[in-house]
Amino acid sequence: MLMSPIQFFKNLPKKKCVACKKEMEEQADCYTNKCEKCSTII
């Protein structure tokens, strides 16, 4: 039986910064892979 899309997204692991490995607070329109502290974009 296929998993519902809602269950699929709820079961995804928390997003982590690729530089410092801390959990990131995800935003709906955010595709970055670095947290604010590690990001060099101003």
How is the secondary structure organized here?
Elements: H1 5-10
Key structural traits:
42 residues; little secondary structure; elongated; YhfH-like protein; YhfH-like
Residue share in β-strands: under 5%
Using the CA coordinates, give the radius of gyration: 13 Å
* N-to-C series of helices and strands: H
Largest β-sheet summary? none
Unreliable residue runs: none
Fraction of residues in H or I helices:
10-25%
Topology, number of strands? 0
Kindly report how far apart the N and C termini lie.
46 Å
Global outline: elongated
Helix vs. strand class: little secondary structure
Number of helices: 1
Mean pLDDT: 84
Walkthrough of the structure:
It contains one helix and no strands. The protein is low in regular secondary structure and 42 residues long. It comes from Aquisalibacillus elongatus. This is YhfH-like protein. InterPro entries: YhfH-like. Pfam families: YhfH.
